[in-house]
Amino acid sequence: MEKLNGKKKLRVSVFISGRGTNLKSLINFANKKRSPIKIVLLVTNNKNAKGIYYAKKNRIKFLIINYKNKTKAEKKILVNLKNNNINLICLAGFMKILSKKIVNIYKGKILNIHPSLLPKYKGLNTHKRVIKNKEKYTGCTVHIVNSKLDSGKIILQKKIRILKKDNENSLSKRVLKIENSTYPKAIKRFIAFNY
Ligand code: GRF
Asked: Is 143 a residue of the active site?
């Protein structure tokens, strides 16, 4: 951990594959004066990920990883995490599944945000399935990553009601909005319990 402004901050690496709205909200959170985190490294498997823009704008180091060979890709990731003394990894729309090796090395120190009320609707296309099943509520979940997809201990969930007029598009927008505000809160809670 790094001492900044007399307080210890967790050194965070955020992993993304695309748009990066959750990254943006985590950067805003990290930029607050008394924030408990410092975002040190952005990792992406997609050189065209829009989210890279936020890293550049905020002078955060970023690493573009070619995932053609997963073993090599993860080796490179691990070296960079170590070199940057990363204490916490936040997955934010990272579309690759981390191997057991990384999950074990950073056991209990990898968080993910998922657009459903886990354990319901693991995996992809959550909003489409939620609407198809005529659910009354949906939401988002921040959880600890373990070796099973979208299955680790839940840190925080936020629930919203599905409106009659909602379609996949409108619902994904409304859920994304609460995702963006929930991720920093979940990190605060995670830190309060673990440090
Ligand atoms: C979010 O819906 C997140 O829950 C899911 O991927 C999406 C990423 O969005 N895992 P963004 O790139 O943070 O805007």
From this structure: no
